[in-house]
Amino acid sequence: MLTNLLWFFFFVLIYWSFCLFWGARTLRKNHTPESYYLADRNISPWVFFFAATAATFAGITIITYPSLIYSDGYSFLATSAIVITIPIGSILFFKRQWMLSRKFNLITPGEMYFKYYQSNTLRVTILIIGLFFAVPFLGILLGATGGLVEFISAGEISRDSAMWVLTAVVLFYVVSGGFKSMISIGVVQSWLFFILFLSIGLGTLNYLGGLDIFKQFAIASNFISFGSWGTTGGYGGGELHSYFSVPGVIQWVAGIGKNNPSGGPWTAVMILSFTMTYMGIVLSPTFSMWSFSVKSPRSFYFYQVWGSGAIMGVFLFLFAGLLGVGAHLLGANPEVNANGFAISNILPELSAENQSSLIFYFIESFEIYSPAIVGFLGVCIIAALQSTIAAFLMTSGSMVARDLYKPYIDKDTSWSRELLVARLSMLLLCIAALYLATYFETSLILLGGLAIAFGFQLFPVLLGMIWFPWITKNGATMGLITGLIFVILSETFGHKLTGNALPWGRWPLTIYSGLWGLFFNVIVCFLSSVFAQNDKEKNHRNEIHEFLNSHMGIHPSRVKIKSLSYVLFLIWTFFSIGPGLIFGNFLFGIAGDGFAQWTMGLPSLWAYQIIWWAIGVLLIWFLANKMDLSTLPKKPILNGDEFSAPDDVEDKGNYIDKLGGGYGWPLILIALAVATVILSVYAL
Hints:
This protein is an all-alpha fold. The chain has one domain (about 1-680): Up-down Bundle (Sodium/glucose cotransporter). It has helices at about 1-25, 35-40, 45-60, 65-70, 75, 80-105, 110-115, 120-150, 160-210, 215-220, 270-275, 280-285, 285-290, 300-330, 335-340, 360-365, 370-410, 415-440, 440-455, 460-465, 475-490, 490-495, 515-530, 540-550, 560-575, 605-625, 645-650, 665-680. The chain is globular, with a radius of gyration of 25 Å.
């Protein structure tokens, strides 16, 4: 254990040196708001591809997905479809947000919403959502970094002290260097994140002796109870084991805490509402601000299709599934061990209290090869978590300075004072997150459960700003506030506030809180907008939509297939994350009938999910590319000029003239692919 810790510190020092170098390098280069907040709007496609992929997924997947698949099985694995729904959210909104930021020289999401809706109430509400999203989320991730160090040191270094020290480095490079420093380090963090998932996934496959493990897994399943929820109770096509099956389309239960669903909460409707709610990550103010920073909207295409859909799909549907399932046969399941079905005992037996440490135990297992690998992978997981931490810390502090201090406290502030306020805001937000993680860990988890669902409530607000000019200021504001209230009431936090007096539990009818909030959000928003009178801002909103429509639109050769996009999306949604998901319980053989009945050589539900994941990647490629939702606008846009006609802009020069060839990102991808092949041939 001491050797592992020494190697860990060795690689931490190298990683810290790199982070401190970038923070110091960019310290004196932040002469304007655009350079500090958005890296001069000059982020190249390949940099955004790497950094945004890690920032989006690393914090929410690397620890939670393997452990929850281990406990809840293939029904939870279906939520890996977030690799498709999250990019669909960005496909709908990123390009048009980028166009607005270019046209009106916007820096923060609050400025964008105020520019369109002309509402101070909405601007402040967006800021509150951004902070409420960031602080609990930061606290959870910061606590995870400290927990890893405590694990590697076998308790010699406490979680809290490690967490505070590790956070100091993140705070330095974010506060000093701004967006440029954060995203440059984010590229390396993404590589470490990819290496981590790839190494643990291939290592686990090696432990299990290849895919033949499913023969043993099928035999073990006939005698041993897997998972936490028992059988499906007749839902989902019969009396099936919940570990291998989706427990029905929907269950008419009051919710967890009142009466629990049979076979667990992960029904088709729950999976649909969960995966759609996770769009809230890219709808949040944090990623709206990220969308302003890129040189070209082509960056979004690479991130959506290859980063999110393809690479993260491999990691979640294949590797995370293998980790969660394989853990049962590698010593983590006491019943498997007691009945002699374990392949090996590289993992300790896990209880419900410590199953969240599953990924840490997998890292520790590499000690049999070399303590240096354990130390290196420990730094990889910290880098992965810190990529998300830095993203939320940077944007949240920026919003406090630009959307609170400057418009409401000191309108004529100088740039040096604004920069000081932004940096102090980041410091205070970081301290708040650390304080919560240190002293209120249980409450932090309750608040963290609200964060992504809160971000999802911005969906109608963005629809109004980006697509539907008839949504009014009052409709968007009232709907948003209503949605936030119903999210709280359908989560554990709401039950704590009301003294458990509500007649329903958590996630009633097996519907995730984000969708409950959106349901009432949309009703209030649409009704308020349709029946609005004296809509004074209507002409203003129409002017902005005329700008968006004149610069966007489908290429004439593809107008006829526009309706096809709706059909493809509905088909994919129905069969992949909707009611049709229950067909996966038996389409390729019922899991309980034994390995000989598994047509694909895998449990039916897993094979079914992999097929629809591949179709989902094609769907987002079609939307992003063929529907022109993540391509260059058809007319040039002049930075900061609200009035020039397109023809006038052509003569003055515009962002298109400054675009490079964009060959850096494929060269790096090819290099990584070659390196992976070489390592797999010579190292395994």
